[in-house]
Specification:
6-stranded parallel beta sheet; Pantoate--beta-alanine Ligase, Chain: A,domain 2; alpha/beta; 39% helix; 3-stranded antiparallel beta sheet; 9 strands; 11 helices; Rossmann fold
Length: 275
Protein backbone atom coordinates (compact mmCIF):
# COMPACT_ATOMS: atom_id res chain seq x y z
CA UNK A 1 0.00 0.00 0.00
CA UNK A 2 1.49 3.29 -1.14
CA UNK A 3 1.23 6.31 1.18
CA UNK A 4 1.46 9.73 -0.47
CA UNK A 5 1.55 13.10 1.27
CA UNK A 6 1.86 15.72 -1.48
CA UNK A 7 0.19 16.64 -4.77
CA UNK A 8 3.19 16.05 -7.03
CA UNK A 9 3.63 12.47 -5.85
CA UNK A 10 -0.07 11.84 -6.56
CA UNK A 11 0.28 13.20 -10.10
CA UNK A 12 3.31 10.96 -10.72
CA UNK A 13 1.58 7.88 -9.28
CA UNK A 14 -1.53 8.48 -11.40
CA UNK A 15 0.60 8.98 -14.51
CA UNK A 16 2.32 5.63 -13.95
CA UNK A 17 -1.09 3.93 -13.68
CA UNK A 18 -2.87 5.87 -16.43
CA UNK A 19 -4.06 2.73 -18.23
CA UNK A 20 -5.81 1.33 -15.16
CA UNK A 21 -9.29 2.21 -13.85
CA UNK A 22 -9.04 3.96 -10.48
CA UNK A 23 -11.80 3.80 -7.88
CA UNK A 24 -11.64 6.66 -5.38
CA UNK A 25 -13.13 7.09 -1.90
CA UNK A 26 -12.63 10.49 -0.22
CA UNK A 27 -12.75 10.35 3.59
CA UNK A 28 -11.91 12.47 6.61
CA UNK A 29 -10.54 9.46 8.47
CA UNK A 30 -11.95 7.90 11.65
CA UNK A 31 -12.99 5.07 9.34
CA UNK A 32 -15.92 2.80 10.14
CA UNK A 33 -17.75 -0.05 8.40
CA UNK A 34 -19.57 2.43 6.17
CA UNK A 35 -16.27 3.64 4.70
CA UNK A 36 -15.00 0.08 4.40
CA UNK A 37 -18.12 -0.93 2.48
CA UNK A 38 -17.36 1.80 -0.08
CA UNK A 39 -13.87 0.35 -0.49
CA UNK A 40 -15.32 -3.13 -1.00
CA UNK A 41 -17.59 -1.76 -3.74
CA UNK A 42 -14.63 0.02 -5.35
CA UNK A 43 -12.62 -3.20 -5.43
CA UNK A 44 -15.42 -4.87 -7.40
CA UNK A 45 -15.37 -2.25 -10.18
CA UNK A 46 -11.87 -0.74 -10.35
CA UNK A 47 -8.37 -1.99 -11.09
CA UNK A 48 -6.86 0.21 -8.37
CA UNK A 49 -8.43 1.67 -5.23
CA UNK A 50 -7.37 5.03 -3.81
CA UNK A 51 -8.52 6.48 -0.47
CA UNK A 52 -7.89 10.00 0.76
CA UNK A 53 -7.73 10.93 4.44
CA UNK A 54 -8.08 14.66 4.98
CA UNK A 55 -10.14 16.69 7.45
CA UNK A 56 -11.04 19.55 5.15
CA UNK A 57 -11.17 22.94 6.92
CA UNK A 58 -13.12 24.68 4.15
CA UNK A 59 -16.28 22.66 4.84
CA UNK A 60 -16.47 23.40 8.58
CA UNK A 61 -18.34 26.51 9.66
CA UNK A 62 -17.99 25.56 13.32
CA UNK A 63 -14.28 25.73 14.24
CA UNK A 64 -14.87 23.60 17.35
CA UNK A 65 -16.35 20.87 15.15
CA UNK A 66 -13.22 20.98 12.99
CA UNK A 67 -10.83 20.89 15.96
CA UNK A 68 -12.73 18.07 17.67
CA UNK A 69 -13.21 15.88 14.60
CA UNK A 70 -11.96 12.40 15.59
CA UNK A 71 -8.60 11.18 14.28
CA UNK A 72 -7.55 7.50 14.27
CA UNK A 73 -4.89 7.49 11.56
CA UNK A 74 -2.87 4.44 12.66
CA UNK A 75 -6.04 2.37 13.03
CA UNK A 76 -7.32 3.66 9.67
CA UNK A 77 -4.13 2.67 7.86
CA UNK A 78 -4.22 -0.83 9.34
CA UNK A 79 -7.80 -1.26 8.11
CA UNK A 80 -6.92 0.01 4.63
CA UNK A 81 -3.91 -2.29 4.42
CA UNK A 82 -6.09 -5.25 5.42
CA UNK A 83 -8.42 -4.37 2.54
CA UNK A 84 -5.45 -4.15 0.16
CA UNK A 85 -6.05 -0.54 -0.84
CA UNK A 86 -3.48 0.45 -3.46
CA UNK A 87 -2.80 4.06 -2.49
CA UNK A 88 -3.70 6.37 0.38
CA UNK A 89 -3.41 10.12 -0.10
CA UNK A 90 -2.88 11.96 3.19
CA UNK A 91 -2.23 15.63 2.32
CA UNK A 92 0.42 17.00 4.65
CA UNK A 93 -1.51 20.26 5.05
CA UNK A 94 -4.38 22.28 3.61
CA UNK A 95 -1.79 24.65 2.14
CA UNK A 96 -0.18 21.75 0.25
CA UNK A 97 -3.48 20.45 -1.11
CA UNK A 98 -4.92 23.82 -2.15
CA UNK A 99 -1.74 25.47 -3.46
CA UNK A 100 -2.60 25.05 -7.15
CA UNK A 101 -6.37 25.11 -6.80
CA UNK A 102 -8.41 26.00 -9.88
CA UNK A 103 -12.01 26.46 -8.74
CA UNK A 104 -14.77 28.85 -9.73
CA UNK A 105 -17.87 29.03 -7.57
CA UNK A 106 -20.64 26.85 -8.96
CA UNK A 107 -24.35 27.56 -8.61
CA UNK A 108 -25.96 24.43 -7.25
CA UNK A 109 -29.40 26.06 -7.29
CA UNK A 110 -31.94 24.86 -4.74
CA UNK A 111 -30.06 21.78 -3.60
CA UNK A 112 -27.43 23.79 -1.69
CA UNK A 113 -29.83 26.22 0.03
CA UNK A 114 -32.01 23.82 2.01
CA UNK A 115 -31.45 21.52 4.99
CA UNK A 116 -27.67 21.16 5.46
CA UNK A 117 -27.08 24.15 3.20
CA UNK A 118 -29.18 26.47 5.34
CA UNK A 119 -27.79 25.19 8.65
CA UNK A 120 -24.12 24.95 7.61
CA UNK A 121 -23.46 28.03 5.49
CA UNK A 122 -20.58 27.50 3.07
CA UNK A 123 -20.37 23.78 3.82
CA UNK A 124 -21.18 22.53 0.34
CA UNK A 125 -18.87 24.97 -1.40
CA UNK A 126 -16.10 23.61 0.82
CA UNK A 127 -17.08 20.04 -0.09
CA UNK A 128 -17.22 20.85 -3.81
CA UNK A 129 -13.81 22.55 -3.73
CA UNK A 130 -12.01 19.66 -2.08
CA UNK A 131 -13.73 16.96 -4.15
CA UNK A 132 -12.88 18.78 -7.39
CA UNK A 133 -9.25 19.03 -6.24
CA UNK A 134 -9.10 15.31 -5.54
CA UNK A 135 -10.75 14.42 -8.85
CA UNK A 136 -8.36 16.70 -10.76
CA UNK A 137 -5.35 15.08 -9.09
CA UNK A 138 -6.42 11.43 -9.02
CA UNK A 139 -8.51 11.28 -12.21
CA UNK A 140 -10.56 8.29 -11.06
CA UNK A 141 -12.91 6.42 -13.37
CA UNK A 142 -15.23 5.91 -10.39
CA UNK A 143 -15.81 7.75 -7.11
CA UNK A 144 -17.86 6.21 -4.31
CA UNK A 145 -20.12 8.11 -1.90
CA UNK A 146 -22.57 6.92 0.75
CA UNK A 147 -26.26 7.79 0.71
CA UNK A 148 -26.17 8.84 4.37
CA UNK A 149 -24.92 12.21 3.07
CA UNK A 150 -27.57 12.23 0.35
CA UNK A 151 -27.62 15.99 -0.16
CA UNK A 152 -23.83 15.97 -0.54
CA UNK A 153 -24.20 13.17 -3.09
CA UNK A 154 -26.50 15.36 -5.21
CA UNK A 155 -24.05 18.26 -4.90
CA UNK A 156 -21.21 16.07 -6.19
CA UNK A 157 -23.33 14.74 -9.07
CA UNK A 158 -24.17 18.33 -10.04
CA UNK A 159 -20.51 19.33 -9.83
CA UNK A 160 -19.55 16.47 -12.16
CA UNK A 161 -22.25 17.36 -14.66
CA UNK A 162 -21.62 21.11 -14.72
CA UNK A 163 -17.85 20.79 -15.10
CA UNK A 164 -17.94 17.87 -17.52
CA UNK A 165 -15.76 15.70 -15.27
CA UNK A 166 -15.65 12.15 -16.61
CA UNK A 167 -15.66 10.37 -13.25
CA UNK A 168 -18.71 8.15 -12.65
CA UNK A 169 -20.29 8.72 -9.23
CA UNK A 170 -21.38 5.50 -7.53
CA UNK A 171 -23.96 5.88 -4.74
CA UNK A 172 -23.78 3.24 -2.00
CA UNK A 173 -26.43 2.35 0.55
CA UNK A 174 -26.15 3.63 4.12
CA UNK A 175 -24.52 1.12 6.45
CA UNK A 176 -26.13 0.86 9.89
CA UNK A 177 -25.34 -0.52 13.30
CA UNK A 178 -27.42 -3.51 14.43
CA UNK A 179 -29.78 -1.11 16.25
CA UNK A 180 -30.36 1.00 13.12
CA UNK A 181 -28.09 3.96 13.85
CA UNK A 182 -26.40 5.14 10.65
CA UNK A 183 -22.66 4.62 10.90
CA UNK A 184 -20.77 7.89 11.33
CA UNK A 185 -17.37 8.95 12.61
CA UNK A 186 -19.25 11.23 15.01
CA UNK A 187 -20.91 8.29 16.77
CA UNK A 188 -17.70 7.66 18.72
CA UNK A 189 -18.13 11.06 20.41
CA UNK A 190 -21.60 10.23 21.78
CA UNK A 191 -21.86 9.73 25.53
CA UNK A 192 -23.12 6.32 26.69
CA UNK A 193 -26.52 7.87 27.45
CA UNK A 194 -26.83 9.63 24.10
CA UNK A 195 -25.63 6.53 22.25
CA UNK A 196 -28.49 4.60 23.84
CA UNK A 197 -30.95 7.21 22.52
CA UNK A 198 -29.46 7.60 19.04
CA UNK A 199 -31.21 4.58 17.41
CA UNK A 200 -34.49 6.44 17.90
CA UNK A 201 -33.51 8.62 14.92
CA UNK A 202 -33.90 5.62 12.62
CA UNK A 203 -37.09 4.61 14.46
CA UNK A 204 -38.62 8.01 13.63
CA UNK A 205 -37.54 7.68 10.00
CA UNK A 206 -39.17 4.25 9.90
CA UNK A 207 -42.37 5.69 11.35
CA UNK A 208 -42.30 8.36 8.65
CA UNK A 209 -41.93 5.72 5.93
CA UNK A 210 -44.92 3.80 7.28
CA UNK A 211 -47.18 6.86 7.44
CA UNK A 212 -46.03 8.55 4.20
CA UNK A 213 -48.61 6.81 2.00
CA UNK A 214 -51.60 8.06 3.97
CA UNK A 215 -50.57 11.24 5.83
CA UNK A 216 -50.15 14.81 4.59
CA UNK A 217 -46.41 15.52 4.36
CA UNK A 218 -46.54 18.78 6.34
CA UNK A 219 -48.43 17.08 9.14
CA UNK A 220 -46.07 14.14 9.00
CA UNK A 221 -43.00 16.39 9.26
CA UNK A 222 -44.47 18.06 12.34
CA UNK A 223 -45.33 14.71 13.90
CA UNK A 224 -41.78 13.45 13.36
CA UNK A 225 -40.26 16.66 14.76
CA UNK A 226 -42.32 16.23 17.93
CA UNK A 227 -41.17 12.62 18.22
CA UNK A 228 -37.52 13.64 17.75
CA UNK A 229 -37.90 16.33 20.41
CA UNK A 230 -38.66 13.66 23.01
CA UNK A 231 -35.02 12.48 23.02
CA UNK A 232 -32.95 15.04 21.06
CA UNK A 233 -32.73 18.62 19.82
CA UNK A 234 -33.84 18.51 16.16
CA UNK A 235 -32.71 21.06 13.59
CA UNK A 236 -34.98 19.82 10.83
CA UNK A 237 -37.11 16.95 9.62
CA UNK A 238 -38.10 17.35 5.98
CA UNK A 239 -39.64 15.28 3.22
CA UNK A 240 -38.26 16.19 -0.19
CA UNK A 241 -38.11 15.12 -3.81
CA UNK A 242 -35.11 12.78 -4.06
CA UNK A 243 -34.20 14.14 -7.49
CA UNK A 244 -33.84 17.87 -6.77
CA UNK A 245 -34.70 18.27 -3.05
CA UNK A 246 -37.75 20.35 -3.89
CA UNK A 247 -41.06 20.00 -2.08
CA UNK A 248 -42.97 19.44 -5.31
CA UNK A 249 -43.57 16.27 -7.29
CA UNK A 250 -46.04 14.05 -9.08
CA UNK A 251 -47.38 10.55 -8.70
CA UNK A 252 -44.10 8.97 -9.86
CA UNK A 253 -41.85 11.13 -7.67
CA UNK A 254 -39.33 9.39 -5.44
CA UNK A 255 -39.46 10.92 -1.96
CA UNK A 256 -36.96 10.86 0.90
CA UNK A 257 -37.17 11.97 4.52
CA UNK A 258 -34.17 13.85 5.93
CA UNK A 259 -33.26 14.58 9.54
CA UNK A 260 -30.60 16.49 11.44
CA UNK A 261 -30.65 16.48 15.23
CA UNK A 262 -28.34 16.94 18.19
CA UNK A 263 -27.74 14.56 21.04
CA UNK A 264 -25.81 16.65 23.53
CA UNK A 265 -23.18 18.45 21.46
CA UNK A 266 -23.07 15.83 18.71
CA UNK A 267 -24.96 16.57 15.51
CA UNK A 268 -26.19 13.56 13.53
CA UNK A 269 -27.88 13.35 10.14
CA UNK A 270 -29.76 10.55 8.43
CA UNK A 271 -32.31 9.95 5.68
CA UNK A 272 -34.53 7.24 4.31
CA UNK A 273 -36.21 6.40 1.01
CA UNK A 274 -39.99 6.61 1.40
CA UNK A 275 -41.19 4.88 -1.77
Amino acid sequence: MKLIYNNLEVVNWVSKNKDLAIGFIPTMGALHKGHLSLISEAKKKADLVVVSIFVNPTQFGDKNDFVNYPSTLDQDLRALENLEVDMVFIPSSAEELYKNENYDTIAFESIENVMEGSHRIGHFEGVARVVKLFLDLIKPKYAFFGEKDFQQLLIIKTLIKKLGIKTEIIACKTVRENDGLAMSSRNARLSKHHRSLAPNIYRVLGMCMQKAKTMDFNDLENTCLKELSKFSNPEYFEIRNANDLSKSGGKNTKWRAFVATKLGDIRLIDNIELN
